[in-house]
Structures are given as structure tokens and as C-alpha cells.
């Protein structure tokens, strides 16, 4: 996992007060006649790694391939779904890419419960950017660049950005005085 760096390269970022979170997510059933959309829109997780526990009959999770196509990701018995988060994409210079994913709950869908575990470092920690060995560097396209989604190597900044985007009304109401991610944060480019 350290991709040519020392095996403990990430340890300091997780050493004190790592900000991991386990969430219990419930998606109610949808009678066939109820329109609209429900679920989770397309996004990438903002942290390092997510371990997602799904019920064995769970449906609706999709991941996006490099060609833009959405692919069903049904559960595998006895296994977690593992999502690469944006901070890990930054740390590996895009060798590991944050996986866009979404949850669909079409009309008629059964209720769904999932348990994601977001494995995150200390909020203030700047996660080190690895120096990839030449062979691996040849296989990476670098960090994805999107003006509307800046990536930050400090986990707290990256997570805050994602929260602001996911909950604009709450931020407009309760966080009018909240600064955006620190000005010192690097805006990473390819
Ligand atoms: O419920 C799921 O299967 C995925 C949820 C998710 O992507 C998230 O909470 O970030
Ligand atoms: Fe997610």
C-alpha cells in the first residue's frame, strides 16, 4: 500500500485523533407510484478509504468507470466494498483514483440499509504525497483536475469542502461566518 515508500509513511497523519466515522444509512422503500429521485447522487468520498458493508440483497450502488459508464456494484458475501477517497488520490498522485459512485433507489425499490466506515486521518493532517517509483509513475494520469471540485491534501479541508457542497442550505443558515478551506491549502493541479 505504501507504493514504494516506507510502510509507515502514513502513520503520522493517523497518529492522534484520527477522524474516522461509521454511518448507518437507511433508504426507505419507494412505492412504485412515487416519483422523484432518492438515494445518493454521484460523488467521491472525501477521505482516504471507505469500507462499505452492504446487506446481501442490497441493490442500487453503482460505480463509474473511466469511460463514464455506470456499473452496478452488488455486494459480495463476506466482503466490504472499498472506495478510494480523494485524499488517497492526492497522496498517490492519481495512481489510485477516487471512485465516483452513487446510490439509486428506483420506484418500487425495497428499503435499504448500508454501513459505510470512513477511514480518515487527523483533520489537520496534511497527508504526505508519495514519490512513486518510476514504474508506477508511468501508470498514473495524475490527480483529476476539476474547477468545481478542488482536492486538498489536508483531510479537514477536503472534508469541509464536501460537507459545504452536500449541505448548502445548512451552511447558508448556520455557517455564514465559516471560512472556506484555509487559504494556505494548495490547489492541486496535474
Ligand atoms: O449507501 C451506500 O451504499 C453508499 C453511501 C455513500 O456512498 C456515502 O455515504 O458516501
Ligand atoms: Fe460515498
UniProtKB/TrEMBL annotation:
| Pathway named in the protein's UniProt entry | Antibiotic biosynthesis
Superkingdom of the source species: Bacteria
A Pfam family annotated for this chain is 2OG-FeII_Oxy
Q: Which UniProt keywords apply?
A: Antibiotic biosynthesis
Region annotation (Disordered) maps to 21-42
Q: Where is the Fe2OG dioxygenase domain?
A: 17-121
Q: What is this protein called?
A: 2OG-Fe(II) oxygenase family protein
Organism from which the protein derives:
Rhodococcus globerulus
